[in-house]
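Appendix B. Raw example, untouched.
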Amino acid sequence: MPEQLRPSRAQTVTEDEVEALVHGICFKTGPPTRLGVELEWVLHDLHDPAQPLHPARLTAVTEGLRTLPLRSALTFEPGGQLELSSRPASSLTSCVQEMAEDLSAVRAFLTPMGLGIAGHGHDPWRPPRRLLNLPRYHAMESYLDRWGPAGRTMMCRSASVQVCLDAGHEEPGPLGYGRRWRLAHLLGAVLVAAFANSPLDQGRPTGWRSTRQAAWAAMDPGRTQAPATDAEPRAAWTAYVLQAPVMCIRGTDGGTGPWEVPVDELRLRDWVRDGRPRPPSLEDVTYHISTLFPPVRPRGHLELRMIDAQPGADGWMVPLAVTAALFDDPAAAEAAYRAVKPLGDTAGVAPAPRNPLWERAAQQGLTDPELHAAAVACFAAAEEALPRIGASPEVCAAVAEFRARYVARGRCPADDLLDSLSGKEGRS
């Protein structure tokens, strides 16, 4: 980054500097060679999953897990969800191997404490309850409450598989960043539908196969809907960042003091221009970007945020492998783009996730014929590509099993949970 774009943390920034900064860092182009995954899990009592998690118990878990020699970054969400973020990996195999080893260590630590981690996109047992009391979470909760209960659901009850991929080549083509940006927003609906796994709220059906995705769609649209996908991606994201409302203004003393929530809507562009209640710094801008939650977030790389957490110890491998194959293998990327391009007519002009395509994906899963057809084509392309990108036999087998159990039959993991309530488990 040029020196003129490196103000100190306390130094204020101009609108031109913010535009140059965001435009310069949102898409780091080049040959796609790296990937990563961020896994969120619902932390629960092994003997009574509906039992509230006591803050003291969470503190013991946090302190103990931080002593483990994990290679993934360990964090906790406000409701106690555990998150592991992998290091950027040079291959799918190394990414899977490192994360699997870290998860094994985490589970081995938690089991003697009577705790486990479950792959649900939305906590199916307990109401939202914030356990982390940092000033930023107080402010975030206050801000998001303006749009109803969905914000607390997101903060305290949601969990996901987030796949991170290189932005792609600067040049056009199947692996170009512009094509990958468009692909992500159409394929994203297919991923929502295929991996939907959050149909329950306190043990009862919600009417959505992905309640998690429904919650995202109900939140502040200025920070959760996608930027314009028919515009040049860098310009679209830069405009989006500047136009997005400021969630909160960081406290003094390194952020430890109270955080202010603007009474009236304050867009970043207006804050930079006006400088009130205090001029924003580079750190304020960086934090503001971290509070934007569109389905696909450009952070130099592409962060795909729409996939529910998956059941089983290794269920997370399947969306990671499928997504990596469909983006990083040129033939599979072209096949996926052809399969999902017609979905643009269904999506219409409204941005994801607030358009008919994404709503149908969250509500109907793969029972929707159009999404089912696209998923069948995409999974076939992914299965063919996985050996070409060096996937292990175990990963290939997991994808094939998921395709046969769910995709081929127009089902998703949420359907298993719904069947278990109606007594159809094992008979569907």
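End of appendix B.
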